[in-house]
Design a protein that fits this description.
alpha/beta; TIM Barrel; 8-stranded parallel β-barrel; 12 helices; binds ligand PBG
């Protein structure tokens, strides 16, 4: 198939012919980013009238539910179809009980959003790290994060989110077997229609730094390397993805995005379900900082990054730039 290209060369072949005018370039563009590709992550905290800036993420705020509603209305107006919710509970304890409280911050917010925006796709992050006093994503026993003791709690969180009306639950804890545990729990309680977006290939990344300020979810001791993946491992990422699909994941995620574009590509070619990439907090903050210094053109850099993630194979992109990107795409 490529032999024609190889045999003929310059001067018969001139690739610049199709780059000559804006219309020609538009016509042969291979990858198109659109607002439907974007998922908008949001932080919600208890209270009212609150819109607290996150210092390391200029333009990102922790909203109380009332103001979150306005933010979501603006996103919906721009054509954004889906949001991903992170909650900041008003208390933390060893077992992260606020995470599976039916009156918890995420549960209340999901109910409110579904009431005002029944068509909005509401995705919830299912994890313990923002809710535990030690900041780990699971139950700590003898200084270690215990996989099997964590599973019932993760399933309990997912169930309470489903009860509140979440369309998709997204486990980000990286315990083995959590997708299966969640699927069984949801099905046993009549929520077979609720989908699971697995943070399947989630790497132990320094790019989560700003998020941990936003979500107040830093581990109190040690790090997350005993459950999140080694950034050096590609084959293991595929194992994670295949296991999550086998356990019942409806969508799979690669996270972070930019240092893992090869993983996104390979996952896209390995599974048939939608592939989601998370353009994480640190990737956002790097662009924001450079743009604030006037070193890069924010709009162009963001659209280039998001297009690159899509070209790598992502069907959907979770990004803090969702609203800005939607606006820029609309302006054309
Ligand atoms: C919770 C979670 C994290 C992120 C999403 N869910 C942080 C972590 O694993 O420490 C990171 C998102 C981002 O950096 O934007 N487990």
């Amino acid at each position: 198939m490529t032999s024609g290209l190889i045999q003929r060369g310059f001067p018969q072949v001139r690739l610049r012919r199709l780059r000559r005018t804006p219309a020609l370039r538009e016509l042969v563009q291979e990858t198109r980013l659109s607002v439907e590709d974007l998922i908008y992550p949001l932080f919600v905290q208890p209270g009212s009238g609150l819109k607290s800036p996150v210092a390391s993420m200029p333009g990102v705020f922790r909203f109380s539910p009332d103001l979150l509603l306005e933010e979501v209305a603006a996103a919906v107006d721009l054509g954004i179809l889906a949001v991903l919710l992170f909650g900041l509970p008003h208390y933390k304890d060893e077992l992260g009980t606020a995470a599976y409280d039916d009156q918890g911050i995420v549960q209340e917010t999901v109910r409110m959003l579904k009431k005002h925006f029944p068509d909005l796709v509401v995705i919830t992050d299912v994890c313990l790290c923002g809710y535990t006093s030690h900041g780990h994503c699971g139950v700590v026993r003898d200084g270690e994060v215990d996989n099997d003791q964590t599973l019932p709690l993760i399933a309990e969180i997912a169930l309470s989110h489903a009860r509140a009306g979440a369309d998709i639950v997204a486990p980000s804890d990286m315990m083995d077997g959590r997708v299966k545990a969640i699927r069984e729990k949801l099905d046993a309680h009549g929520f077979s229609q609720v989908a699971i977006l697995a943070y399947a290939a989630k790497f132990a990344s320094a790019f989560y730094g700003p998020f941990r300020e936003a979500a107040d979810s830093s581990p109190g001791f040690g790090d997350r390397r005993s459950y999140q993946m080694n950034p050096a491992n590609r084959r293991e990422a595929l194992q994670e993805v295949l296991l999550d699909v086998a356990e019942g994941a409806d969508l799979v995620m690669v996270k972070p995005a930019l240092a893992y574009l090869d993983v996104i590509r390979e996952v896209r070619e390995t599974v048939l379900c939608p592939v989601v990439a998370y353009n994480v907090s640190g990737e956002y903050s790097l662009v924001k900082a450079a743009a604030a210094e006037g070193w890069v053109d924010e709009r162009q850099v963001v659209l280039e990054i998001l297009t690159g993630i899509k070209r790598a194979g992502a069907d959907l992109i979770i990004t803090y730039f969702a609203k800005d990107a939607a606006q820029w795409l609309r302006q054309g």
